[in-house]
Amino acid sequence: MHKARMLFLLLTALTVAESPAQIQVPMGYTVESINANCGGGIDYLPGGDILGIYQDLGYPTTGYLVEVDANGDGVPSAPQQLYALGSGVYGSFVRVSPSGGFAIFGESSNGVIRHIDLSGHSVVQIATVAYNNDLSFIDDHYCYLSANPEYNPQTWESGPNRIYHWDLDTGIRTVVVEIPDTPSGPIDVDDSGNLYYVRGTGAYPPPPNSFALLKYSAAALAQALQTETALGENDAQQIALLDGGYKVAWHSSGYCLVSDSNNGKIYKIESDGTVSTFCERGGGSYDSYTGMDLYRRDSSFGPCAQTAAKLCVVYSDWSSVSAFYQLTSTILYIDFKPSGATTPDGWISADENPYGTNGAWGWL
User: What are the tens digits of pLDDT across the range 329-352?
Assistant: First the structure.
């Protein structure tokens, strides 16, 4: 048999492998550790760097909005401080606008939400919404904001979680979703204007399947905005039940990724409700994935592919500096040896395929 260059395509349930960074990632992906402690929200900038709320080892004394090198060009060489949040402030979200010209970032300690111009880095306060949790853009003029302004930190009692439609030009916020007695949850908007929201639970530790990934249609949200009548949980499509949900990211292929701060996992949820574990590390009450964002969600993020898409995740044990990872898809090349030849290191032959029917082979 002649030696041929082959491409291994992973076509079945994800097989995980331990990376040097001690995070289990699916085969067909690589992971790198980024030297930044962005535990208070992250988002990708258009060029592939990351905008995040950085908490140094003096937390909660010091917090900054920073730019972090994630595209490999070495700039900035260290997290570049763009804005100081002040003392004892916990960042809740960072979102870069679709145009990439500005970003909005929030903190839940005082409920302050700010706008930063990404060319000159000027910052202005644009709102105060108590216990804000997440924001997702519809376009540069409109977005949705998830918050629980009636949360009582003394009793840990949740008020209603509200999702606001926010007109950024006029400043008008209208409640379009309201779910009683529910902690504030993460949101993301797809390219058609549908809203994905993870409804949580106030119970701790949370029982299995006590979180729900919900989808609100763009049409229903438009009706709620027009009539000023908030939608409830029963007005959404329940896609899947989960054991946790801290951040959600929609991909153009139709699936969602959800980080679980209770069990140290990131789930992949298909549009039909099929749930699988995409990657994991550890687990437990203080061992968790928190921040998460997709870069180029319009580009394929399947295994073993050349793609522009990347996934950034923040892992925190809540007692030390956060771990910050970036996952990219990687092509795996495997050479078949000539019959009877000695197998070189890193090669396998057709009769030595350890994957059996779990994979497929294709010509390049």
Answer: 876 545 444 555 554 444 444 444
